[in-house]
Amino acid sequence: MKTPKPETIAAVTAAIETKALRVPQISDAIGICQISVKYTINYLRATYGSIHIERWEVAGPANNRQVALYRFGLGEDAAMPAKKVKDRAEIEARQEAQRIYRAACERRKAQEAERRNRERAIREMAKPVRRDPFIAAFFGHAAPVQPVCGRVYKQDMTITDDDEVTA
After folding, report:
1. pTM (2 decimals)?
2. Burial 98-120 (b: 16+ CB within 10 A, else e)
């Protein structure tokens, strides 16, 4: 095993003298990459036994992985706790919740896509028709297309004074 740099050894031991820390916390505290910190810890543990695992803690709420908290000084390593085993009902309940969530996301995405398509269609209908200038000069400009919204049936609203029509 290659010996780490003396300044790396000094920095790692100084960081974990007062309290137990995880490898990422040690790395952030001294400004050295996590690989170098882990290598230095393994070297000191194997060669001198001057670093021990004070305790184990869960890495995060999303997983069940245990990570070691290292402390400088002589001592015995804490035993790694047993892995928590989930029962089948808990696993099925989580999977059902995930299925419901995915279905809701799919419905929301479909509704958003439908709304975007509807808005795009209205915008496209409101745009003037582009024509070739020669065709426009020959036939005249195109009438703007009115978007269909509101009342579709258009009734003739002219009022006449014919007595025959009103009787």
Report:
1. 0.51
2. eeeeeeeeeeeeeeeeeeeeeee
